[in-house]
TrEMBL record:
Gene3D superfamilies named among the record's database cross-references: 3.40.50.880
InterPro entries cross-referenced by the UniProt entry: Class_I_gatase-like, Peptidase_S51, Peptidase_S51_cyanophycinase
Recorded family membership: Belongs to the peptidase S51 family.
GO molecular function: carboxypeptidase activity; peptidyl-dipeptidase activity; serine-type peptidase activity
Group of enzyme by EC: hydrolase
Protein species of origin: Halonatronomonas betaini
Designated name of the protein: Cyanophycinase
Organism phylogeny: Bacteria, Bacillati, Bacillota, Clostridia, Halanaerobiales
A Pfam family this chain is assigned to: Peptidase_S51
Length: 284
């Protein structure tokens, strides 16, 4: 590992200086606020500045007020709401200026297609990517806001028939992280088959299923640490021995052999590059 232009370089790839925080949805906003408090604690400034982007939701006012109330339970925090609801507003200079000075940029839940269709390729997203790579800036998202982070994004597919070929919809996400596909509300909505189908098609990727009130902090682009009260499920298809997905018709059931599955909870982690399970002592 070497340092070039104030950025870490490993295996000919730049390691981001910022953090990603992906949350599975329904994080506690009223009682212990464990995930949101952990998020704020990652910022080493006297008055952390948070910008909440409500693009994903159809209820930006209500959602924004909910997060203002939640974050305001923490001491000395500045919370702003960015209701970016069109390609035009995604180019507003005043919004871009606020992104440039935020310590935490937080994407709410809703519909991840709203995030990508409105924000992808916009000046705001390009600035978010630059800051994540070059500065210590935290990019966080819950539910749809987490699902949109990866380069390949799940945006639909009913869990009840996700074991059948062709029933999961994939598109381009924001590209903040490569070779990982994120799914949310994972345990509670029974999305195991959905993510496993995606990996049968893309076995070199890792699938990360984020349970509710559970999240991961991603450091240096590859070290993840679980936070919250829920569970994280990790699927590794790299050593997949067999899949019938290329030989069956659409709507037929997919069969796979040797899909590796891990679960991590608060304090445990995983190295995405080494594909290694990390115990609490490994993360200290």
């Amino acid at each position: 590992m070497i340092i070039l232009n104030n950025m870490l370089l490993k295996n000919n790839e730049y390691l981001p200086k910022g953090l990603l925080v992906a949350i599975g949805g329904r994080e506690d906003k009223e009682d212990d606020l464990e995930i949101l408090s952990t998020l704020v604690s990652l910022v080493n400034t006297d008055v952390p500045k948070i910008e909440v982007i409500t693009t994903a939701t159809n209820f930006p006012q209500e959602t924004g007020e909910e997060y203002i109330a939640a974050f305001s339970q923490e001491e000395e925090i500045s919370v702003g709401i960015l209701n970016i609801d069109s390609r035009e507003t995604a180019s507003r200079p005043e919004f871009l200026d606020r992104i440039k000075t935020a310590d935490i940029i937080f994407f709410t839940g809703g519909d991840q297609l709203r995030i990508t269709s409105i924000l992808a390729g916009s000046p705001i997203i390009e600035e978010i990517k630059r800051r994540y790579l070059e500065e210590f800036c935290i990019i966080a998202g819950t539910s749809a806001g987490a699902a949109a982070m990866s380069r390949t994004m799940i945006y639909g597919g009913d869990s009840s028939d996700a074991h059948q070929k062709g029933t999961v919809n994939l598109g381009d996400g924001l590209g903040l992280i490569d070779n990982v596909i994120l799914d949310t509300h994972f345990v509670e909505r029974g999305r195991f088959s959905r993510l496993m189908q995606v990996l049968s098609i893309n076995p070199t990727n890792l699938g990360i299923g984020l349970g509710e009130d559970a999240g991961i902090i991603i450091e240096k682009g590859h070290i993840i640490k679980a936070i919250g009260t829920g569970v994280i499920v990790i699927f590794d298809g790299q050593d997949l021995k067999y899949s019938n997905v290329a030989n069956i018709r659409y709507d037929e059931a997919i069969g796979m052999e040797n899909m590796i599955v891990h679960t991590i909870s608060n304090g445990y982690g995983y190295d995405l590059s080494a594909r290694k399970y990390l115990h609490p002592g490994d993360l200290s």
